[in-house]
Amino acid sequence: MANIIAGHFDTQPQADAAVSALASQGFDRGDYTCFYTPPPGQHDLQPLGGDAKHHSEGTKEAGKTAAAGSAIGGVTGLAIGTAAAVAMEPGLTAIAAAAGAGVGAYAGALAGGLSGSRQSDSSAATRDEPAEPPAAVILAVRVNVAGEDEECASRVLRDQGARRVERAVGNWANGSWVDFDPRRTPQFV
Question: Which residues of 64-75 are buried (b: 16+ CB within 10 A; e: fewer)?
Fold first, then answer.
């Protein structure tokens, strides 16, 4: 197992500049690799697509709040639809009430689901409910923890504009991090 420091960059030119900076600091070409990780949900790790079996950590409560919003919106829509129908055309009360309930339930479910979703919290993430980072160009550097490599690599990545720098342990073979998993919980440096 290798000790790895990884920097997440917004652009390829930033990562390329960091590669040059690592080379100038004496890092061997076989000790760093650069790759792109797509936006969350697009890693296609599950048989039917996506990354997680059920949902991300940030949407854990969305189903409950969507159901509550649907119920509240449905009742509100039913009342508004009935009142509007009685005021305008009493013969259409049932149709207007049903339409109002449907529209209200839909709007309530949407509002409830959105209010139950939030930014994922990395500290609450698990493998089945990941808190995935946004898309990035990742520059991974194999380091020797006992030496100054880890500190130097972290500094170079930050100086070159890495949006986040994290520490990991993984398999390194042929100059590449072969078991990278975008769903793992990051250990920030």
Answer: ebbeebbebbbe
